[in-house]
Amino acid sequence: MVEMSRGKLLRKIAEEILGVENARKIWGRVEIIGDIAVIRKPPDLPVEAFVPLGEEILRKLPYVKSVWLAVTSVKTQHRIREHVLLAGENRSVTTYREHGCVFKVDINSVYVSPALNYEHRRIADLVRPGEFIINMFAGAGLFSIIIAKKAKPRKVISIDINPRAYELMRENIALNGVEDVVEARLGDAAQVVKEFTGMSDRVLMPLPEYSRIYLRDAISALRDCGVIHVYDFVSAEERDEALLKGKEVFSEELAGSGVRYEFLYGRVVRSVGPRYYQVVYDIRVCRG
Ligand SMILES: C[S@@+](CC[C@H](N)C(=O)[O-])C[C@H]1O[C@@H](n2cnc3c(N)ncnc32)[C@H](O)[C@@H]1O
Question: Which one of 109, 223, 263, 279 is most buried, counting C-beta atoms within 10 A?
Fold first, then answer.
């Protein structure tokens, strides 16, 4: 017997419970993080409509132990959503696995998204042995730890301003045995990077809302030349246009910073709303 993929099974469950029309609204809005399922609520359906869906997900996907509904978009400085429990265990902490690494995460207090899975590995694959890296917005440490496990950096400075993210990041560093390479730091990235002026080969800025605001701080952390990975949100009719618009914005920012720069790569990470995209650029920057 051929097993149905998880995506198809979720779609079938949603269609049975919500009807075809409403099921379509949650398509692409369900994430499985460890043994927790999270559904991002579409604005026009009430919370109660999702309770039977949560119960059915628990019945049909035995490895899922609790189902939550995200009732807000990511907000606050810590970039977390508010969730209500739909079914199963009242537990927001789980163990999430990616690229052979293991992460303790808490969906109610730290940002985590399997949608960044590809980016985590893509960046790790770019790292050369001996690099000094700064991750300015590290969350529970996914980029930093995957880089430490998959590449051979000398050091990864892994910063987050959320105390709970810092706490989980420290646990995750130990869980994955990368204490010698990844250094967790609690604080505002703009302040912490001051300690590493002119030291980095690579700076990651995985917080789209801040990457332009903190661009100069990232640049000052680079050696004479280095690579920055900037994430941003862009409004555009379609993906190619988003990629071009984002590039123009960063070109202007960089031109105003008096540095030499070269766009090495760019991609649309995902669509985050109607005509709204998350993009990333890898940019080589040389100071002076
Ligand atoms: C989108 S999340 C990072 C996701 C993470 N890189 C991953 O791969 O799972 C952005 C993170 O930036 C943190 N943050 C927000 N403002 C910050 C600041 N000024 N300095 C350092 N971290 C900050 C938030 O607490 C949040 O954990």
Answer: 279
